[in-house]
């Protein structure tokens, strides 16, 4: 019963588009990094160095980060699709489908779509890298050599992405288990989150991780004043600890951040409804924004760390030639690092845009009702935009704050001893860039859904079987 | 609390007058002239409304009846300015709905029209109380002390006092329906349109709701237009319109449930 069930559970392939797109982005990204490191390995073997191996390891770490964000985004996307079809699923349950079977079929679909996306992305990324390589060789920036066309690691990446999509399908479809068959007969057509059990253990672990980690991070920054090696180690442990704490406790932390920041939206009906929808389900709020928080935090950490390092270099006594060289090295390193790291923010943004679109489609009936009760088109539009602002602004601000703390502490622990006082990492340029990207994200994520919402006819709300 | 007592409680409030109804009281609240609504073209053409002429006067409680697919919901949508007509003119609370743009129509609905739908009446993210106050919020006006007392009475009469801070998902179908009724009555619109308002209610609550609607119409002149299939429900109205195949085929004064059943059987046989 997998064939028909899949469509019945997840609806059209369009609703799974996000899964394919995210898997494709991960694939393209992985392929670019893998092929670049393969090309550099070939190159350094030709000239007798070991840059490639190191790059391979670094690439592995970055690919894992992107995969993690991708998985979070896919979990969110699947969950959004499922929660929009709860009644439908309830009907399937009523007619005798078992929750497990439905979840397995969801998992198969996400694995299939994720796998297809991964293949497309990997092929595209590989071709792109070779294209750039050929251009660079032609311009004599890269030496002529026997560059491999592919790499076994590409297969590993494919397997990893497909597995991630599959796992994400399983976690994202947990909502199915909370559907009671009786819900098919109930009157509310709207999405209503089932109450989640708040796990004490989870809260405890998160608390320990966040508080303990931040304390160790602070200690690292202090120790860095006298002992850079020990300081950086402490800062790393602290960042890892508190980062893990935030990941575990995201569902406690992020909804609070969104609630606090969105309270500035205003008190008119469109703001109130927007805010309520943004906070309707803490888990959904968390999933749709967590990727963004991670992406922005990573970008800001690197930008902030690099700017702090740079600040401290400025205070060193160097002759002009050395200074110019040091400046250039940092400039180039910063840009490359940020380019590599920004992918997770992009993947997260794609996921966010698609979540916004889906939730608006799912709410067309509610929107029809609001229109018939007297919401003007403009109010409906502003409601959608405000919801997008509430979620994305919170994610961006929270991520940037985390990133500045991590970047500054990391830099301080590393070079604090050689610099007077605290090295502040305020990457103004990067922050402006992030703010602009945030505004663009709000516009992109709300434009289409808002247009769709405005087009909803008030009569829709009256139809019983819409 | 017995229905009789509730009706009495409402009666005491009946002296308050509607503040939103702007135009002259003798003018009809809804006036339709040669209104047609056509769906589709060629062989798929359906005239949901075919050259309808009708006036609904202030303070009346009108029931709209007819076989399934006869055009009752379309009638309501068009009269309330929710849907466009294919031809003809609709006046709603003194305004030419058919000539108004979307925004003007929305503002007109906001201030002059209350709705009770058969299902999915409430904004899911707002509590019952917030749903009731939504028309005031949308109009950007505060609830006066008098209106506050009126709302409190409605909530009490409808048996919602204990559920007032709940979200719609935590209410039964009937409770949701009653919240929608409270919302429609709270802001005293020029007219309330109700599509099967008792569809989700048991016979006792449905009697209470109908009594409440009739009292609202009789005691303080609330105009109500109600679509219903139920002859008992329609017997609470003081006027019964019958629609068949997009035509207005009957316009009666108050009738007993038995008389209404007999009336409809004729049409349903005729329609089949
Ligand atoms: N959007 C639409 N597109 C095409 N035809 C429609 C549409 N809406 C209604 N109709 C048709 O118009 C006619 C009247 O529909 P309407 O919903 O007004 O009936 P009704 O009297 O309310 O029926 P019921 O008692 O079953 O609710 C029906 O034949 C219906 O098929
Ligand atoms: Mg109908």
From TrEMBL, chain A:
Keywords: Cell membrane, Membrane, Transmembrane, Transmembrane helix. The chain crosses the membrane at residues 21-41, 53-78, 110-132, 152-171, 203-224, 230-254, 290-309, 335-361, 388-409, 421-444. It is a multi-pass membrane protein. It is found in: Cell membrane. Residues 61-181, 339-457 form the ABC3 transporter permease C-terminal domain. The keyword Membrane applies. Coiled coil: none annotated. GO terms for cellular component: plasma membrane. InterPro entries: ABC3_permease_C, Membrane_comp_ABC_pdt. This is ABC transporter permease. It comes from Knoellia subterranea KCTC 19937. The lineage of its organism: Bacteria, Bacillati, Actinomycetota, Actinomycetes, Micrococcales.
